Amino acid sequence: MAVFTSPFPSLCLCAALGLLAPAHLQAADADLAKQLANPVASLISVPLQANWDTGIGVNDAARFTLNVQPVIPFDLNEDWNLIVRTILPVIDADSPAPGIDDATGLGDTLQSFFFSPKQPVGGWTLAAGPALLWPTGTDDLLGSGKWGAGPTALALKQSGPWTWGVLANHVWSYAGEDDRGEVNATFIQPFAAYVTKTGTTLSLSAESTYDWGAHQWTVPLNVVLSQLFKVGSQPVQAFVGGRWYAEGPTGGPEWGLRAGFTFLFPR
Fold first, then answer.
1. Is 25 buried (19+), middle (13-18) or exposed (0-12) by CB count in 10 A?
2. Kind of pairing, strands 80-93 and 103-106?
3. What pLDDT shows up at residue 189?
4. DSSP secondary structure string, the chain?
5. Distance between CA 208 and CA 188 in Å, rounded?
6. Is the CA virtual torsion 44, 50, 188, 213 positive or negative?
7. Are 11 and 179 in contact (CB under 8 A)?
8. In angstroms, rounded to a whole number, what is the distance separating the alpha carbons of residues 143 and 129?
9. Residues 207-264 pLDDT 10s
10. Is 176 left (phi over 0), alpha (psi -120 to 50) or beta?
11. Residues 6 or more apart from 258 whose CB is under 8 A from it?
């Protein structure tokens, strides 16, 4: 299967743990948190995003996915950046039905290359480029067995504490195991995020995927809360949230949780 997921890792319990920055650092933290709300900001970040989904199949099974999502920007020239975003899932899936084994291992890797003007266009941050699907799945139940490619694009606007926009891609398979189904999937994610002066972010998104072969939508609605803090001099964002599947295939998950950390390396 193709790998699609949120452009931000958002959210956190850190305020409850007393990890908010001192007042004289809060403005800088709020600015850094706002950059994190932009999937193509010129900021090196390494999110570790853990997802738990339940209610899968007749066994009411659970599925754990840890998405390792490094985002690395490159300066191409005075006018353009290249942002490379990689999503590598590590999966532990319970058996969804009798006769199907549990599965643990790697899923397929999705790597996106966003070419983005350094200056907003009409107040909008725009980015586009190719997306590549690598068949890194270590089990037939965890990966598609297919090589894939297609376009990806992003448009977002930031105004005051708000960030909103849409991320999309489409991936077709072009090679791979002959006995596996073709990949032909569209991903569309509208999102909105609000960043407070203390570096707290509340984000809403719909990670919608349409499988053209099965003629099926999968639409999880996500609410995520995050907090930026520092461990020594290292900025870290912690996040936690939940999601409800508004649409999905028969036997698909019903709801889930998300939590994790993003390690930041400002340039």
1. middle
2. antiparallel
3. 96
4. ------S-----STTTTT-PPPHHHHHHHHHHHHHHTSTT-S-EEEEEEEEEEEEETTTTEEEEEEEE--EEEEE-SSSEEEEEEEEEEEEEE--SSTT---EEEE--EEEEEEEEESS-BTTEEEEEEEEEEE---SSTTT---EEEEEEEEEEEEEETTEEEEEEEEEEEEEEE-TTSPPPEEEEEEEEEEEE-TTSEEEEEEE-EEEETTTTEEEEEEEEEEEEEEEETTEEEEEEEEEEEEEE--TT---EEEEEEEEEEE--
5. 5
6. positive
7. no
8. 24
9. 999 999 999 999 999 999 999 988 988 889 999 999 999 999 999 999 999 999 999 8
10. left
11. 11, 49, 50, 51, 52, 222, 224, 239, 240, 241, 242, 243
Q: How many CB atoms lie within 10 A of CB 170?
A: 19
pLDDT band at 17 (very low <50, low <70, confident <90, very high): very low
Residue 31 in tokens:
């600015």
Domains of the chain with CATH codes: 23-265 (2.40.160.40)
**Residue 82 · residue 115 · CB < 8 Å:** yes
Distance (Å, rounded) from C-alpha 47 to C-alpha 86? 10
Do the Cβ atoms of 220 and 247 come closer than 8 Å? no
Does the pLDDT at position 16 exceed 70? no
Give the separation between CA 22 and CA 28, rounded to whole angstroms: 11
Which of these, 256, 208, 237, 231, lies nearest to 37 by C-alpha position? Answer: 237
Which residues are 80's β-sheet partners?
117
First to last CA, the chain: 35
Q: How many Å apart are CA 143 and CA 146, to the nearest integer?
A: 8
Which residues are bridge partners to 195 per DSSP?
201
| Confidence (pTM) | 0.85
Give yes or no for a contact between 2 and 217, defined as CB atoms under 8 angstroms apart: no
